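To fix ideas, we reproduce below a protein record of this kind.
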Amino acid sequence: MAEQPGAERAYRAPCPGCGAPVEFRSAQSAFAVCPYCQSTVVRQGETLARIGKMAELFDDFSPLQLFAAGRIQNQPFTIVGRLQYSNPGGRWTEWIAALDGDRTGILSEDNGAYVFALPFELQRAAPPPTELRVGATTAFNGQSYTVSSNEQVALLSAQGELPHLPELGRAFPIVELRNDKGLVLSIDYGTEPPTAYLGRSVQLEDLQLTGLRDESAKDEKGRAFNCPNCGAPVTVNLADSKSITCGSCNSIIDLSQGIGGELKHAEQNEPVRPLIAIGSMGQLQGAQWQVVGFQHRMGVEPGDDEHFGWNEYLLYNKKRGFSFLVDAEDGWSMVKPTTGAPVMAENGSTATYLGKRYVQQYAYNAETTYVAGEFYWQVERGQKTFNRDFANGNALLSMERSANELTWSSGSKLDSGVVSAAFKLDDKKDMFVRGDASPVSAASGLGCGTIIFIVIVIIVLLVILSTCSSSSSGSRSSGGSYGGYSSGGGHK
């Protein structure tokens, strides 16, 4: 194996499969995939040994690619490898980043955003994955973490240089833990002993990336197919979509395994019409957002039989990723999934995140009843979660828990007028008014006779209610979630 001239720590040797040059830029890379014949090779001293053939990459439509370069914490890095994984919820990519010196980081997707993680040496042995139950709290190196996901994953394909290489197709656990400081701890049980990485949320624009994939090339490829239910053309517009609905028959189509081969779908009846049309553009919180998805959800408090409903619009911005615009009877709000996990009191009455304390408002079971558009997770009717909603003034925090994952979202309330104006729907602004509207503004358009009539009706109702023996307390308003559902934890 020869050192490449003019490049420190870079090595090149002929592929044992086809003889083409295979390059190692990072001293931490033990494996590589030949870019010509897809042979998987292992570096053994001064020679390369072929250990198999790598499966073809699936097109993840990512703006990232091999040899893109950037900076993290004022340190340069270069993307030298790519690992593509799958789990029951879909497929995702992790990019291997070589930093100066002997360190290798991982840049991976996190609920439509990104996390940059570095190797993390655990001061105690990683416990068996079966002991890390979703929702449980544990400590590593003096920091407290909450288990946010525990799933079986498998390597589908790889490209470039790799510090380690799980057996292709063999399932192994990956556990992710998060804390109230915004940290993400990932424990990979595909190695012995397990390896750990610790990371934080990053914006691609903050990484000062160069050498990104050509956007025009990505757009030209596109992703179009015929609906497996009715045959109508369906076009996928977002890179990370795991589900999409057919605009003709409203069927939900599963894209989690790609669009090649047989596509699973589920028919939907009785469509719900969103107030804001899918594809609409709106200016909110200093950014231009596009409505790419819509879902109607129903909730019920434990021990209660009264259901309430609300709507969630999935918004997308190229630089900020995904957010949720939530339309509930008690008001509008805008939230996005958190990178970390708040600390919740044992009884669920409060939660603390990034130094702010929130008080629980509601706890309820939620179910998705209708969806439209595209989603970055595998959405389907009947998906169920247990939710808790917290508030601190206008600041909002919500928790959603499923069997394998715990997801948190944070954001704030929005005035209904701001929402209607953002999407240029001022002519329909009255349709945006919700239960948080002030009584004064609501009454300002009423005549005196109308107000007197309302007062009389209220008095009569109060008399009737006073004779009733039944009463209720602690009831949840027929509002809605503070928003955001994702079946994808970090690295998905």
Remarks:
- Helices lie at 215-221, 416-422, 439-443, 448-466.
- The longest strand covers residues 143-162.
